[in-house]
Each structure stands twice: as structure tokens, then as C-alpha cells.
């Protein structure tokens, strides 16, 4: 059985995500092997620096009942990292769980990517769509350059010479200058993450074969009429009190309907802002300076905004600049509010916590445990939260951060009776038939 790995947020899980899983299976199974799909998913908060609309438990169950076989949580410090840290943490967990293929969605610019013609599908079965292969070569070329020794030093030099630039803009300018051509892959959200996945595979020398699945439907943050709306559009619908029926798989639709009916949909951004600002106002200037990714005076800038502005949205506006993008400021705010210290995401995650699985998922875990027993090495698997106490040290400290964050997250639920404390220490994986 060949294991396909996917890095995801599933905020919320929708038809495009289900399509990625199906297409990944189709391409790999064309080689004659049975497949299993393992997804490493952000928890209750996501990398763009906001709360997920549904809890990690609901989103993991939706994914598992809609095509994935095993869903594992990416621990909080890696979720609230830059794209580089997010990718390194997620991809390393997939490799530790025995994934051999890394599937990711990517903008290809190919007008045929939405085709449902069976003949085209059959022709593409072995290697994927031609446009996807072209984009993969471009991404691998850029990843090789960015991972090369000395490249980051060149980016830092450019930032010093032009301090108004963001790191991402400086990196793109350096790469284009060295390669002598434009790199559109460094401007598209999914392609940027894909680049970081490929770089992580190189840096950690992971045995993962990349597989590009062209994005179909709406782009990353696009709104408008589309049979496969973006996750951003679905979140907007939920925030406006509308349903998402017809835009998510039937099994996921049932789960998300249940969550909304029981008052467990965290879709109100104003409630999130008030809670965050109340936490941020308790913190001192030194605590802001010591946040992850808060160097170059950013910690001081954020502290000043917190002390002078009267709403969370105004704090974000006051602190963000071209050099300090909004997503980076939002992540810093959540790190501050949830107690994530600098250095928490250094290295690889110390455990894999299971959120949902089916029988094929159990087979993946059995294989991992057998290899671990034979070699004496491997990532610890958390089927029961209390087992993290046996690991102790860094693993327990990181788990506690996530458990405390979940307690904060439940305060966003509209139904007061659902805001119970300590659930992360009591709840095991959802088993899907």
C-alpha cells in the first residue's frame, strides 16, 4: 500500500479538497498500487492568523468521511509560523508517518485543468496533467535555488538596502535576478506553499515524491459564481449566516450542519477580535519583543498598536506595513494571546496526534509502530491525549499550548454550554467507518 500525504487546513473541507484526494488516488493507483491518504491538518487556528470556522475535531471528521484515511494535527507553534515553518513541520510529520508521495494543489494557469474529459484523464493518469508537470519543474528549480547555501544571506542584504520590502518580495527579487527570469510561482498562494514543501524535502532529505494536482474552481481568495467556491468564500457565507450546502461533500455537509445546529461554529470575527485584544492588553513590552518572528522592531511596533488602538482591526492596520504583511501581524497576535514563545517551532514536531482515522488509517499507524519497534526510532503516536505525559519535556509543553489554545477557541462558540474547558485532554480520535 502506497501512502499519499497532504498538508491541509480544511477551513472548511469542500469539494475542491475532495477532488484533490480523488485525483491523487487516481494518479497513484494507475501504477497498480492500493493507496492510503494521510492529511496533516492545522488545529483550531490556521496559518493566515485566525480561528478556524469549525473545530479541528469537526474538520478532521469531515475529511476522514470524505476521502482521507488518517488526519493528524499539526501542533500549534508550526501552524502559527511563517510559510517555511508551517511547511517544514507538516512535511516532516508526513515523512515520519511513512508517506511516499506528497500531493499538493497548485495554480497552473492551464485552461484545461478544469476538464472532465475521460480521454484526457486516462492520458494523464501516469504522470499528471502536462501543465502541472511544467509547474512542478519551475517550483523545483526555485526550491533548489532558495535552499542553496548563501541565498538567504543575499535576501537579507537586499532587505537591509531596501528596508521597506517584505521578506517575500526581497526573496522573489533575488531569485529572479539570479535565474534571469520572472518567477510567477512566487506570487501565487498555493504555489508559495508548494515551494516551501519542496524546499523542506530538500533540507531534511525526505523520501517524498511530489505530485502536483491543478487547482480547479475558484482561486485561493476568489469570490464569485463558481461550482467549486474557495474556502474563503465559504467562510464568508458562514459569517453572513448563510449555508454551505452543495459546496461541500455530503458527509462533510452533515457534520458542519450538526456543528452549526449545536452552536459550535466560530464564524464571528468581531467576537474573536474582542477576545484577542483583551488578552493582548495584559502583556508587557518585553513579552511582545520575545514573540516568534518579532525582530527588527516589530514586537515594539505591535505593543504600541495594542496600547493605543481601540479595536483588534485597528491594531492590525496600525502594525502592518509593506514589510510587515497583515498575515504576519495576525500570527504574532495569536502567538502573543496563546502564549507561543520564540523558538517553539524549532526543529521537527515531537509527536503525531491522531484526530480521525478509518481502517486504512489504522494500517498506516500499525506500520509506523512496527517500524518504530524494530528501529527504536520514529515519531511517537498520540492516540490518547494523556499519553503525552509519558513523553514529558518539549512534547508535553507543546501539547499543553495546543490544549490551552483549544480552551480559548471554544469561547468563540455562540452556544455557552459548548465552551467547556479541558476537552483536548479528554478527547480521542474519531473512528470513521
Please name the defining characteristics of this protein.
433 residues, 8-stranded mixed beta sheet, two-stranded antiparallel ribbon, Rossmann fold, globular, alpha/beta
Structure description:
- With 433 residues, this protein is an alpha/beta fold.
- The protein folds into two domains: 1-129 and 188-266 and 350-433, HUPs (Rossmann fold, 3-Layer(aba) Sandwich), CATH 3.40.50.620; 269-338, no CATH class.
- 51% of the residues lie in helices and 11% in strands.
- It contains 20 helices and ten strands.
- It has helices at residues 15-29, 56-64, 76-79, 83-96, 118-124, 130-147, 151-161, 167-179, 189-204, 231-239, 250-261, 269-280, 285-289, 298-308, 312-319, 326-338, 359-375, 388-391, 393-410, 423-426, and strands spanning 2-8, 35-42, 45-46, 50-51, 70-74, 101-106, 209-214, 352-357, 381-382, 430-431.
- The strands form two sheets. Strands 1, 2, 5, 6, 7, 8, 9 and 10 form an eight-stranded mixed sheet that branches. It has a two-stranded antiparallel ribbon with strand order 3-4.
- Strand 8 (352-357), helix 17 (359-375) and strand 9 form a beta-alpha-beta unit.
- The chain is globular and about 55 Å long.
- It starts with a strand and ends with a strand.
Question: How are the secondary structure elements laid out?
Answer:
Layout: E1 2-8, H1 15-29, E2 35-42, E3 45-46, E4 50-51, H2 56-64, E5 70-74, H3 76-79, H4 83-96, E6 101-106, H5 118-124, H6 130-147, H7 151-161, H8 167-179, H9 189-204, E7 209-214, H10 231-239, H11 250-261, H12 269-280, H13 285-289, H14 298-308, H15 312-319, H16 326-338, E8 352-357, H17 359-375, E9 381-382, H18 388-391, H19 393-410, H20 423-426, E10 430-431
Parallel strand pairs: 1-2, 1-6, 2-5, 6-7, 8-9, 8-10
Antiparallel strand pairs: 3-4, 5-8
Helix pairs in contact: 2-11, 4-9, 6-9, 7-8, 12-16, 14-15
